[in-house]
Design brief:
By secondary structure, this protein is mainly alpha-helical. The radius of gyration is 15 Å and the shape is globular. β1 and β2 form a beta hairpin. α1 runs parallel beside α4, α2 packs parallel to α3 and α2 packs antiparallel against α4. The longest helix is centred in the last third of the chain and has 25 residues. A two-stranded antiparallel ribbon has the order 1-2. It is built from five helices and two strands; from the N terminus they run αααββαα.
Length: 147
């Protein structure tokens, strides 16, 4: 399971880095893309913290400044690598309170996969927003990455 998640998070790291690099080259990053990428960063951070049983610094819907994306992204990846490296039981059930204060219980495996799945979803929406703003979509799908 470690190898599987390390491969997925390598993919996630690569794709997010492409977006960070593309945004750095733009004079103006579309506002919707800023909100969407912020959500990728927030979600990754929040689920890492839930797994680690720590209080998250960020909240869903919080807009991150484009200049901080690289640092947040690197920290998220490092924390996930620590989690996957130290874990022996990915089926371990984790309880946490969601953003509405409701108790939730999921396996660590499901929570880690949720980070990947939601990140892919938001990156697709960023591609749509880039295209709507006359920018070249980044093609961050998994098969393109594996080629």
């Amino acid at each position: 399971m470690k190898v599987f998640f390390n491969q997925l998070f390598d993919y996630n790291f690569y794709c997010n880095k492409k977006i960070i690099e593309a945004a750095a080259e733009l004079d103006v990053v579309p506002q919707k893309s800023i909100a969407l990428f912020s959500e990728i960063l927030n979600l990754h951070h929040i689920y890492n913290e839930r797994i680690a049983k720590r209080e998250p610094k960020f909240k869903f819907g919080q807009v991150q400044d484009v200049s901080t994306w690289g640092d947040i992204h690197y920290e998220n990846q490092r924390n996930t690598f620590d989690i996957t490296s130290e874990s022996e039981d990915f089926e371990k059930r984790m309880d946490y309170e969601n953003s509405e204060g409701q108790l939730r219980i999921h396996t660590m495996q499901d929570m880690l996969f949720h980070i990947i799945n939601e990140s892919t979803h938001y990156r697709a929406l960023i591609d749509i927003d880039f295209k709507a703003n006359g920018l070249e979509p980044l093609r961050t799908n998994y098969i393109t990455y594996k080629q």
